[in-house]
Amino acid sequence: MKTCWVMVPYEEKDTRGKSFKEIFEYDIKNGTIALGASSLVNTIKNVKELTEDELRQEMENLSPDYSEKQINNKAKVIWQFYRLIEEGDVIIVKKGLRQILAIGKAIVRSGKLTSFDKKKGFERAGNRFNLYPNFLNVAWQRILNLKFDEDVFRQGRRKQHRIIPLIEEEVRKTFREK
After folding, report:
1. How confident is the model at residue 157 (pLDDT cuts 50, 70, 90)?
2. Which domain holds residue 111?
3. CATH code of the domain containing 121
4. What total of structural domains would you count in the chain?
5. Which tens digits make up the pLDDT trace of 102-112?
6. Who's near 5: CB < 8 A, 6+ residues apart?
7. Is residue 63 part of a domain?
8. Both ends of the chain: CA-CA distance in Å?
9. What are the CA-CA distances from residue 36 to residues 77, 121, 130 (Å)?
10. What is the distance of C-alpha 64 from the center of its chain?
11. What is the pLDDT of residues 5-24, one digit of tens each?
């Protein structure tokens, strides 16, 4: 099985733009999922040429109000988004800690797997303060509203071995059905 990436379409607590539901529907209709970090407009175009440390440094320069932990987390996510996700990788869309909304595969469209587009980000999110302009092309395989009785997305070694098979089974089911 390819690498599985778990993503969230939008932070529900940010109510300055469109609703979570509207943004998720945009992603399904357009075959995308997006990542925030719109303040990195100068950096994102060059992410593939930067080391992870250079990206972290660039983020520190552009976002002096962020804590070291925030910088490290954001740099890691952006690095993974642009450098590690590959065509054919499995994309799982989650909502909260107990719900899977969709499963798809990362695909190349118009010669690109990922793209940076502020105009499209605003169209998607409707929030000029938080554009989510980093797009990944996805061929959605299964749209579902699967709720679990326990937190399947919480990090932690104790739960990980017991819970991950639940998610893995849903992924396997998705691609068996196609």
Report:
1. very low
2. 4-36+88-177
3. 3.10.590
4. 1
5. 999 999 999 99
6. 80, 85, 89, 90, 91, 92, 106
7. no
8. 15
9. 10, 9, 7
10. 24
11. 988 887 766 677 888 889 99
The C-alpha atoms of residue 22 and residue 45 are separated, in whole angstroms, by: 27
Side chain identity, residue 17: G
Stated pTM of the model: 0.83
Q: Compute CA distances 134 → 21, 51, 122, whole Å.
A: 19, 18, 11
The reply to whether 66 falls in a domain is no
Look up residue 71 and give its two tokens.
């910088």
- Residues 76 and 55: beta-carbon distance below 8 Å: no
Give the number of other CB atoms < 10 A from CB of residue 165. 10
Burial class, 32, CB count within 10 angstroms (exposed 0-12 / middle 13-18 / buried 19+): buried
| Amino acid sitting at position 62 | L
